Amino acid sequence: QVQLVESGGGLVQPGGSLRLSCAVSESIFSFDVLAWYRQAPGHQREWVASTPRWGSNRYSDSVQGRFTISRDIAKNTVDLQMNSLKPEDTGVYYCNGEQMMPTGSKLNYWGQGTQVTVSS
After folding, report:
1. b/e per residue, 38-69, with b = 16+ CB within 10 A?
2. CA dihedral for 53, 55, 60, 66, sign (positive or negative)
3. pLDDT tens, position by position, for the chain (120 residues)?
4. How many angstroms separate the Cα of 4 from the Cα of each of 24, 63, 83, 111?
């Protein structure tokens, strides 16, 4: 059973930084896409950033230029460096891994989430 475990969340002041990490039980290169999503109170879960096995990383407009997603080969993690944090970045952050099967179907795996609160 594939497991994804997030860590690194917490309380930070506006303008501050946090680094989230997602530990993956399988090789990070077994996933076609690794991504971060977030869910604010009263809102639907939204995509934040993704890193494909091949190609360029992508970011939502709301975090472009402030967040950086990366794969750490040595630690087998996918990390999210968050800078210049804003109160609207508050929410539960989830790690997601997607695997494409030979049949064309996709398998999606989710972590349990880590809380990020941006407040003064």
Report:
1. beeeeeeeeebbbbeeeeeeebeeebeeebbb
2. positive
3. 899 999 999 999 999 999 999 999 999 889 999 999 999 989 999 999 999 998 899 999 999 999 999 999 999 999 999 999 999 999 999 999 999 989 989 999 999 999 999 999
4. 5, 23, 23, 5
